[in-house]
């Protein structure tokens, strides 16, 4: 009999099995493509932060203009020669993933007073990018930054000019903020305020996202960016992440080393 319970169950079971197989195969086979798209998107953000992105040119080709470098945060030294070689040999291409695990061997736990960006721990060695001029002097330094907003951690890149004080661009590639509120960090109009802003007054990180609009007559206009309206917590998160990443625990020591190089 075609309408027996056993047959009905067998047909339902077979359909479930086939569907789950189709979904699993699709998920597995698309995973590589998704990862590749994510990596590509990140590269675009890095190029955009450096203000050199051209949508008509292949991303991979454009990315080759950038020099990949590694900073030992604890020593404040850029990895070079033998040290760099053995670091790369030891970690091959998996250091990004390893450092993202925040395991003790790859990262340092931050104490509460230091952890103003609420990132809990900072990788021991960080990857960053240099854009050089034709004469090999430094044009821009592109640095990964991250910090807590309202709903989660915002991940992005900030690029600075060769004076190590002027911001060239700021881009976020991942965050959980609310569209129309905190997610306005992606709004091109808001982002367009960053190029030209200054970071340090003496050795203090003085740039901040204020509440409300910056007064055009403010003498400290170079250190202020308009707040994201209705998103004071995300705005504060952006200020705090810049304060942290340009502190001694972040990239501050890198600049004296790069200054020496150039
Ligand atoms: C559904 C919802 C989503 C929100 N998303 C954000 C957000 O992404 N970023 C943020 O700073 N504030 C967000 N807020 C507002 C905060 O709760 C808080 O009120 C706000 O940051 C205070 O900023 P204001 O003083 O500019 O209003 C959200 C509020 C609600 C109800």
Question: How would you characterize this protein structure?
Answer:
With 262 residues, this protein is an alpha+beta fold. The chain has one domain. It has helices at 5-49, 59-63, 81-91, 95-100, 188-191, 232-245, 252-261; strands at 66-72, 77-78, 107-109, 121-123, 125-132, 138-148, 153-161, 167-174, 200-201, 204-205, 208-209, 224-225. Strands 2-1-5-6-7-8 form a six-stranded antiparallel sheet, with helices on both faces. The chain is globular, with a radius of gyration of 23 Å. The mean pLDDT is 93. The site of flavin mononucleotide has 10 residues, from helix 6.
Summarize the model shown.
Helix content is 36%, strand content 23%. It has 262 residues and is α+β, with helices and mostly antiparallel strands. The protein has one domain.
Main features:
binds flavin mononucleotide; 7 helices; two-stranded antiparallel sheet; alpha+beta; single chain; six-stranded antiparallel beta sheet
Q: Output the structural class.
A: alpha+beta
Give start-end ranges of low-pLDDT stretches.
none
Query: How would you spell out the order of helices and strands?
Result: HHEEHHEEEEEEHEEEEHH
The mean pLDDT is 93
Strand content: 15-25%
């Amino acid at each position: 009999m075609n309408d027996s319970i056993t047959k009905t169950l067998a047909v339902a079971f077979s359909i479930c099995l086939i569907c789950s197989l189709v979904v699993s195969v699709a998920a597995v086979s698309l995973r590589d493509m998704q990862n590749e798209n994510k990596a590509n998107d990140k590269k675009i953000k890095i190029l955009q932060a450096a203000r050199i992105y051209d949508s008509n040119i292949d991303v991979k080709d454009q990315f080759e203009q950038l020099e990949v470098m590694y900073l030992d945060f604890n020593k404040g030294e850029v990895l070079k020669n033998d040290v760099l070689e053995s670091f790369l040999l030891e970690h091959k291409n998996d250091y990004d993933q390893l450092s993202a695990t925040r395991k003790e061997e790859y990262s340092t736990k931050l104490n509460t007073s230091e952890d103003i960006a609420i990132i809990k721990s900072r990788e021991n060695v960080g990857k960053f990018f240099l854009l050089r001029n034709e004469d090999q002097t430094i044009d821009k330094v592109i640095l990964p930054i991250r910090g807590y907003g309202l709903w989660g951690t915002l991940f992005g890149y900030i690029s600075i000019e060769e004076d190590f004080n002027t911001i060239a661009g700021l881009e976020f590639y991942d965050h959980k903020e609310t569209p129309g509120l905190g997610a306005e960090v992606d709004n091109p109009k808001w982002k367009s305020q960053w190029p030209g802003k200054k970071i340090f007054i003496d050795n203090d990180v003085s740039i901040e996202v204020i509440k409300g609009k910056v007064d055009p007559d403010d003498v400290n206009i170079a250190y202020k960016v308009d707040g994201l309206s209705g998103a004071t917590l995300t705005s504060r998160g952006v200020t705090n992440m810049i304060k942290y990443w340009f502190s001694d625990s972040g990239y501050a020591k890198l600049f004296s080393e790069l200054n020496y190089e150039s």
